[in-house]
Amino acid sequence: MQYSLNQMGFPSDDFEENLSYLAEVSYDGVELDLTTETGLGDPEMLEEKRDLVVDNDLEVPTVLTSHHGEYPLTSDDAAVREQGIHHCTQAIEAADILGAETVLVVPGWVDKKTRYDHAYDNALASIKILAETAETYEITVAVENIGSSFFLSPLEVCRFIDEATQAGPVGMYFDVGNISRFGYPSQWIRILEDRLAKLHIKDYKEGNGSTYPPQGDIDWYDVADAVEEIGYEGWITAEVPPYQCHGDLMPPQVLTNLKAIFE
């Protein structure tokens, strides 16, 4: 296994300082969430980030862009989907520069204005377009589950991925904590099997929401068993914020917990 931290867990506002610290406490990589202000669409800025990552003996396994929240691929508005595809395409290009093997894409959500069947069809068509682009860079598009009333069944996600993969490399970026609000993560992992591209780790406690592993209600023994059963040996990425006090204590403590869970 290799372990990385999503940048939401950075304890400092200084990018280079965070990289140095993560390397010091023995992380293997860092997951970057890019926006137009932090390098998305700017090759020169991305190359500078890449050089800093390499200088600290780290890797960037995955790139994402939080612009997906503004431009969901599930939208019935073609202009919104087009903008979302544009930003995700930029994320694919950024991943190529940064040496990442995966781009995380949140397809969108279902709400009172967006019917589930429309959301599925819109997202699938959009992901297929992105998969075609990603294939040229040998990068995988990994769709993630969030609390969006979408992707509510592992059977549905398997169908979605199998259809999308006809256009290019597509897998699932499975968030263990997010799914625990309404499902059982070990069941999802066993059903997804080789469709599992990456793992996001956080815990979930009923009545309180997301928390640090293993401080919630998730059966981590069962999750680890499921991961082993399907033969997953890829990246394990913590997606948790720094502690409110002494934020620098979080990264090494969470890394120790992750290794205890999965090793």
Structural description of this entry:
The protein is of the alpha/beta class and 263 residues long. It has one domain (2-262): Alpha-Beta Barrel (TIM Barrel). Helix content is 43%, strand content 17%. It is built from nine helices and ten strands. A hairpin with a 3-residue loop joins strand 8 and strand 9 (209-211). The termini are close together. The model has no long low-confidence stretch (mean pLDDT 97).
Summarize the structure.
The longest helix has 22 residues, at 116-137. By secondary structure, this protein is α/β, with parallel strands linked by helices.
Q: Which CATH top level class fits?
A: Alpha Beta
Helix content percent band: 40-55%
Q: Name the CATH superfamily classification.
A: Divalent-metal-dependent TIM barrel enzymes
CATH structural fold name: TIM Barrel
Structural class: alpha/beta
Inertia-based shape? globular
Count the helices. How many?
9
The main sheet comes to: 8 strands, parallel, barrel
Strand neighbour order, sheet with most strands: 1-2-3-4-5-6-7-10
Tell me what portion of residues adopts beta-strand conformation. Answer: 15-25%
CATH architecture: Alpha-Beta Barrel
